[in-house]
Amino acid sequence: MESRHKEPSLILSLLPIFFLITLLASNVYIFSDDASYGPNQIALILSAAFAAVLSLKLKYRWEEILDAIVKSISSAMSAILILLMIGSLAGTWLISGVVPAMIYYGLEILNPTIFLFAAVIVSAVVSLATGSSWSTAATIGIALMGIGQALGINEGVIAGAIISGAYFGDKMSPLSDTTNLAPAMAGTDLFTHIRYMALTTGPSIIITLIIFLIWGFSIDGNAALGTVTEVQQAITSKFEINLFLFVVPAAVIVLIIKKMPALPALLIGTLLAGVIAIIFQPQIVMAVAESDVFSIKTGYTAVMKAMFTETNVATGNAMVDELLTASGMEGMLSTVWLIVCAMIFGGVVEGNGMLKKIAGTIIGFAHSTGSLIAATAGTCITFNLTASDQYIAIVVPGRMYSKEFEDRGLAPENLSRTLEDSGTVTSVLIPWNTCGAYQSTVLGVATLTYLPYCFFNIISPFMTILFGYANIKIKKIEKDD
């Protein structure tokens, strides 16, 4: 049966990629920031259909194409389940006060005398808590821009500090969609990915902090105190903030350290936060349940709603209200949709040998582990430049190189780390990428103006390539794996 299949040429293999890039570029132009909420999914489906038609030319039957699609989607099911659970966790962590407490205490470290350094840390803490660099920029980021401009600091430098911190938090947060997407594409699990990614991310953020610390040491930031106080007062007006709330994330961290699988660990963290919400935040529970009476039914209703649908806590402060929003499982559906569509496209071009042909051509020039990692990073950046979407810059290279990493005896976390170190963080540096367009619009700073100061985003891909060539922490596949 194998012998009747024709091997695709490089030009034929590239046609579905070019078709996809054309549709994605059109979507960014027409739909702008909304491209990832439907148009890009359809682009992936249409590109998969185009690749399927070409597969018929290569003597593949429809049943074979369908089998490849099903196999591809099946490989991502674990990540999809975790992503849905994370939506629930975000909801209960909001109503329990865990996320507000992280933001509250994160603002405590906003030392006015070292504004830029503090801006990186605050943005990182908020992004870690929310799992979103976009919401961080749209909330705390806007406030920090105003504070920094009032201090007379260059707007590009301020935006660079905010974006550096926000993307560090986005990268390292288990609540982030890209942090879940990368290990799904590479074939590893969420927490292994995060632990392994910390090896390159740690040095990158440390270098970034040192640069901003030296840069802003002489800046007087007394003007920052007013805005910080307003945010903290808005949070405490609705939530009971205390250190006991950190029992919830601490418990999840302990479970992770004990190597409990991600799905049950996240479920325990979700349910524990629901209990904490009922104990410490009765007013929030009643508001979410839309009830005037606090009861077992009210608590159950509030926790269930936080888990499955969007939850908002109104404080009267528009910026804080934007922060105190969680989408529940429902809010993860567009990302799940994107993953499924990406896996359909990936299944077709992988099943008909096209992906193997493209990857093989590139890999032909990558003889060492370092050059393989560099090729992967370069491919991610290329897709950010051409496809204009960070998800595509993770999905397609992930499918392209996963087999080669495995064949060379390299553990999948090497690939997932490279995907994030180059795909996630460089998206914001490109003006026509959805991330670059969004951050530029929200912060009011042109992409090319803040680009030179996004030190974390610039350093990260070089750091992962350095680790590859220097053979630092390059994990091999063990026999029992």
Helix and strand layout, with pairings?
Blueprint: H1 10-31, H2 39-57, H3 62-75, H4 77-95, H5 98-108, H6 115-130, H7 133-150, H8 155-172, H9 177-186, H10 190-216, H11 224-236, H12 247-257, H13 262-280, H14 282-289, H15 296-308, E1 311-312, H16 318-323, E2 325-326, H17 328-331, H18 333-351, H19 354-363, H20 369-386, H21 390-407, H22 412-426, H23 434-443, H24 447-450, H25 455-469
Antiparallel strand pairs: 1-2
Question: What are the salient characteristics of this protein?
Answer:
mainly alpha, 25 helices, two-stranded antiparallel sheet, 481 residues
Number of continuous helical runs: 25
User: In which order are the strands of the major sheet placed?
Assistant: 1-2
Given the C-alpha coordinates, what overall shape results? globular
**Rg, alpha carbons:** 23 Å
Overall pLDDT level: 85
- Name the helicity range: over 70%
Order of helices and strands: HHHHHHHHHHHHHHHEHEHHHHHHHHH
| Largest sheet data | 2 strands, antiparallel
What is the straight-line distance between the termini? 31 Å
Strand content: under 5%
Main structural class: mainly alpha
Pick out the low-confidence regions. none
DSSP E strands, number: 2
